[in-house]
């Protein structure tokens, strides 16, 4: 009964946050909506990128690394506004994900709520600083952080990282560790580093069920992203046209993945994503070295 009541409260708050964020986004980018033409090559590539990255995001792969690779490869926007674009563009798709998984996966209410609040606080503080970062600083921070995420994913994939347990909640010092780390991960979201892979690694390391990672990491992102993204919007630190296209087609990808596909044999796909993350990390280092 307690979980059902909490779930309803979380979903109501998610809906309110989503509607408010959408209002702010559409108000700020109303002129760009009229000028979007999907027949243009850049816009069509952006649409495909948003669909693919958020489709796999709903399956637990994460969207930021994949989407960053698309953006860097096809030069869809510049690096200075990349963190803001990632956060703004993926906010609505992530809220859809949270609706699906918070409702369907059982997790301890205390663990879920405390980790979500920690991520929100981390993101709120992080966005204030990151929105003012110059392009070169963002490049080196993203390069290092993406490399760390790739290493974590690689160690997990080859069995050298803890693979979780059966617990659906945390208590004592483990809960404190989870709160502190999720605060840090929320802040890192503001430099364009996805929370999913490191959050999943954290949950595994603390002995929780891998399935529990989904409502925790998706709920954390769904609540922190509207708060942080509005800061990016107010600072004009995002690509308006790209964000609108990705948000729309990314939402379609999430709904197909979460409601129709639901799960896939992801072992090979995860190896592909690890390669993408390493590639994107090195491309950030290269851009940093070339950007004098």
What are the SSEs and their pairings?
Layout: H1 2-28, H2 30-35, H3 41-57, H4 64-74, H5 82-104, H6 109-130, H7 135-157, H8 172-188, H9 196-205, H10 213-234, H11 240-261, H12 267-290
Helix pairs in contact: 1-5, 1-10, 3-4, 3-11, 4-5, 4-12, 5-10, 5-11, 6-8, 6-10, 7-12, 8-9, 9-10
Total helices: the number is 12
Q: Given the helix and strand composition, which structural class is it? A: mainly alpha
Number of strands: 0
Classify the helix fraction into a percent range: over 70%
How far from one another are the termini? 59 Å
Percent range for β-strand residues: under 5%
Mean pLDDT: 85
Largest sheet: none
Shape: globular
Model regions low in confidence, pLDDT < 50 over at least 5 residues: none
Global Rg? 18 Å
What does this structure look like?
The protein is mainly α. It has helices at 2-28, 30-35, 41-57, 64-74, 82-104, 109-130, 135-157, 172-188, 196-205, 213-234, 240-261, 267-290. α5 runs parallel beside α11. The longest helix is centred in the N-terminal third of the chain and has 27 residues, at 2-28. The mean pLDDT is 85.
């Amino acid at each position: 009964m307690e979980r059902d009541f909490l779930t309803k409260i979380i979903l109501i708050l998610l809906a309110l946050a989503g509607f408010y964020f959408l209002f702010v986004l559409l108000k700020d980018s109303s002129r760009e909506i009229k000028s979007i033409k999907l027949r243009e090559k850049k816009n069509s590539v952006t649409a495909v990128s948003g669909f693919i990255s958020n489709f796999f995001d709903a399956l637990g792969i994460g969207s930021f690394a994949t989407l960053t690779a698309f953006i860097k490869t096809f030069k869809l926007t510049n690096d200075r506004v990349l963190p803001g674009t990632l956060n703004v563009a993926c906010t609505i798709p992530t809220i859809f994900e949270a609706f699906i998984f918070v409702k369907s996966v059982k997790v301890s209410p205390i663990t879920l709520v405390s980790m979500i609040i920690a991520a929100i606080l981390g993101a709120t503080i992080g966005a204030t600083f990151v929105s003012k970062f110059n392009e070169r600083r963002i490049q080196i921070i993203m390069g290092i952080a993406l490399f760390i995420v790739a290493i974590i994913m690689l160690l997990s994939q080859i069995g050298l990282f803890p693979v979780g347990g059966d617990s659906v909640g945390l208590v004592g010092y483990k809960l404190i560790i989870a709160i502190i780390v999720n605060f840090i991960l929320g802040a890192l979201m503001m430099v364009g580093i996805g929370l999913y892979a490191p959050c999943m690694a954290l949950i595994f390391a603390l002995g929780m069920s891998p399935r529990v990672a989904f409502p925790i990491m998706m709920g954390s992102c769904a609540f922190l992203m509207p708060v942080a993204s509005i800061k990016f919007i107010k600072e004009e630190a995002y690509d308006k046209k790209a964000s609108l296209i990705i948000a729309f087609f990314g939402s379609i990808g999430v709904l197909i993945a979460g409601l129709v596909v639901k799960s896939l044999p992801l072992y090979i796909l995860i190896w592909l994503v690890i390669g993408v993350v390493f590639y994107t990390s090195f491309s950030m280092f290269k851009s940093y070295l070339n950007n004098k």
